[in-house]
Amino acid sequence: MTKTNQPLDSVEFDTLATHLVRRGLAEESSGMEFAALAGGVSNDVLAVTAPGLDAVVKRALGQLRVAEDWFANPARIETEGQALRLAGRLTPHAVPAVLDLSDGYLVIERAPRTWHNWKDDLLIGQVHVPVAQGLGRLLGAWQRATAGAADVEEQFGDRTAFDQLRVDPFHRTIAARHPDLAEQIDRTVEVMGAATTCLVHGDYSPKNVLVDPVGEGLWVIDWEVAHVGDPTFDPAWIIGHLLLKSIYRPASAGAYAEAARAFLTAFCAEVEGAVVIDADQLVRQTGCLVLARVDGKSPVEYLDATGRARAREVGRRLLSDPPTTLLDTWEYLT
Question: Which are the contacts of 146, defined by CB distance < 8 A and separation ≥ 6?
Answer without folding.
Answer: 86, 152, 198, 199, 228
